[in-house]
């Protein structure tokens, strides 16, 4: 399973990239706003930190303007992945860009039928929003299961990029189902390394080591 981090905070991206865990980065207009930085500049910096796909989202709603925005974004670096919304115009843009060999992430997916359309449009990634699905009393994890089943039924190459993950259990469930990629905020990725017994064990080892009166260095 690939790990993407869902942020435009380059300090967090650098820190996580150093662990070797990061396979890519996803951004969206909200995360760019949160960074307080210029969109093109921050995407360029992120593309220099990770080798994998860096999702940069178009903001236009019509196909023609989406293509113009994509033309600017794809010039930033070879690992830019153009993010388009799951609308008919977004799907047209997906079809056109993937036809030109550009990676496309189709975002704001909330149903398995929408995911089916994205796969038929040749999407590189489909981003079902698990947490926002749960927020609205739907079952976000069931959505991932349904998409996995449909994609496997027809051997679609589109990768399931489980997005809007809010906690480690979301990551665990996505891994069990076989999501190809998860994207999560830095805090959620860091939480995956945590266990109360790891902390307790470290405390006990530190205390016993101190009693030996030894040093390694
Ligand atoms: O980037 C898309 C997605 O991961 C957003 O997550 O938590 O804002 O629903 P969230």
Structure description:
- By secondary structure, the chain is of the alpha/beta class.
- It has one domain: TIM Barrel.
- Helices cover 52% and strands 17% of the residues.
- The chain contains 11 helices and 8 strands.
- The chain has helices spanning 10-17, 29-35, 39-49, 63-74, 88-99, 112-120, 130-135, 140-153, 168-177, 186-191, 196-212, and strands spanning 2-6, 24-26, 54-57, 80-85, 104-109, 125-128, 159-162, 181-184.
- An 8-stranded parallel β-barrel has the order 1-2-3-4-5-6-7-8, surrounded by 6 helices.
- The two termini are 38 Å apart.
- The mean pLDDT is 98.
- It binds SN-glycerol-3-phosphate.
- SN-glycerol-3-phosphate (G3P) is lined by residues 6, 26, 28, 129, 131-132, 163-164, 183.
- It is an enzyme of class 2 (transferase).
- The active site is at residue 83.
- One of its GO terms (biological process) is ketone catabolic process.
- It catalyses: D-sedoheptulose 7-phosphate + D-glyceraldehyde 3-phosphate = D-erythrose 4-phosphate + beta-D-fructose 6-phosphate.
What's the helix and strand layout?
Elements: E1 2-6, H1 10-17, E2 24-26, H2 29-35, H3 39-49, E3 54-57, H4 63-74, E4 80-85, H5 88-99, E5 104-109, H6 112-120, E6 125-128, H7 130-135, H8 140-153, E7 159-162, H9 168-177, E8 181-184, H10 186-191, H11 196-212
Helix pairs in contact: 1-3, 4-5, 6-8, 8-9
The structure holds SN-glycerol-3-phosphate.
SN-glycerol-3-phosphate binds next to α7.
